[in-house]
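Aim 2 progress update. The chain analyzed this quarter is reproduced below.
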Amino acid sequence: MKRFYLIATVLGFVAPNIFVLKESVETGNILLWLDPMATINGMFANTIATAFIVDLLVVVAIFFTGPTMKLKSIS
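Predicted structure tokens:
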């Protein structure tokens, strides 16, 4: 199982960064940080992109909220 998680972690890191690198080269918006408004506009450019971003934001919120609530219940 550890091997699976290692492969999933590497894939989860490398796959999105291929597109970040491509966008950085094409637009000059290095790592999507130099022009925050262009990054936000791109994230919500169409319905499909919006769906993925909203899903990501919900998952991140749950990721940070779940362990915090668990820690409070343990202590």
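The chain has two domains: 1-43, 47-75. The helical segments are 2-27, 36-43, 47-74. These observations will guide the mutagenesis experiments scheduled for the next reporting period.
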